[in-house]
């Protein structure tokens, strides 16, 4: 049984899917803690599902390195098998990546390497793309350029807004995340083979 720590910055829609999947006794992973870099709405899922939560507000620290050290200390208390960045909108310091790699994965709302960064959905629309997608990657020290472990295409409709497209991508992203963790737990994906760090 894999133990998971999930890090969020927002509402935690991917996290909710993972928590619902793990309610199935056959699913080989359990979320042991939920963390955030701010007072995120998704922390409420901890109370709903009976999962401990922690918050390490970025603004409470003098720099990214100090924030990262405290975040890592909080994560390591739970001794997770896997750490998932699920909408965490902040780059982890290299020391944190090195400590957790390769058991550190991220979801991204684009078909990487297309449209990396914080505005993948907006960038796809601005580029006039006819398709984009969702990806699950192993985190490295770059911006969304770690090894890809799962991805799927999503068509861009002519009348799409950023919200409508992102909603369709999130549906795929959630399914990919649940499946990727299943594949890691079952040994179908070996994260050590996907590590760049």
TrEMBL record:
It comes from Cryobacterium roopkundense. Residues 4-181 form the Formyl transferase N-terminal domain. This is Phosphoribosylglycinamide formyltransferase. It is an enzyme of class 2 (transferase). (6R)-10-formyltetrahydrofolate binds at residues 64, 89-92, 106. GO terms for molecular function: phosphoribosylglycinamide formyltransferase activity. N(1)-(5-phospho-beta-D-ribosyl)glycinamide binds at residues 12-14. Signal peptide: none annotated. Its EC number is 2.1.2.2. Keywords: Purine biosynthesis, Transferase. The record marks 144 as: Raises pKa of active site His. Catalyzes the transfer of a formyl group from 10-formyltetrahydrofolate to 5-phospho-ribosyl-glycinamide (GAR), producing 5-phospho-ribosyl-N-formylglycinamide (FGAR) and tetrahydrofolate. It comes from the Bacteria. The keyword DNA-binding does not apply. Pathway: Purine metabolism; IMP biosynthesis via de novo pathway; N(2)-formyl-N(1)-(5-phospho-D-ribosyl)glycinamide from N(1)-(5-phospho-D-ribosyl)glycinamide (10-formyl THF route): step 1/1. One of its GO terms (biological process) is 'de novo' IMP biosynthetic process.
């Amino acid at each position: 049984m894999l133990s998971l720590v999930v890090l969020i910055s927002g509402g935690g829609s991917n996290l909710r899917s993972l928590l619902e999947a793990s309610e199935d006794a056959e699913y080989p992973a359990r979320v042991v803690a939920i963390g955030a870099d701010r007072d995120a709405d998704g922390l409420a899922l901890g109370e709903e599902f009976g999962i401990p939560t922690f918050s390490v507000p970025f603004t409470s620290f003098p720099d990214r390195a100090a924030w990262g050290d405290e975040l890592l200390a909080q994560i390591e208390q739970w001794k997770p098998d896997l750490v998932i960045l699920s909408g965490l909108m902040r780059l982890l310091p290299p020391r944190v990546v090195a400590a957790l790699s390769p058991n550190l994965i991220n979801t991204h709302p684009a078909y990487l390497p297309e449209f990396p960064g914080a505005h993948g959905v907006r960038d796809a629309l601005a580029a006039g793309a006819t398709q984009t997608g969702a990806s699950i990657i192993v985190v490295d020290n770059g911006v969304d350029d770690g090894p890809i472990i799962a991805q799927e295409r999503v068509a861009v409709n002519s009348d799409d807004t950023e919200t409508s497209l992102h909603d369709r991508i999130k549906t795929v992203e959630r399914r990919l995340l649940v499946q990727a963790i299943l594949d890691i737990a079952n040994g179908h994906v070996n994260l050590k083979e996907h590590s760049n760090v």
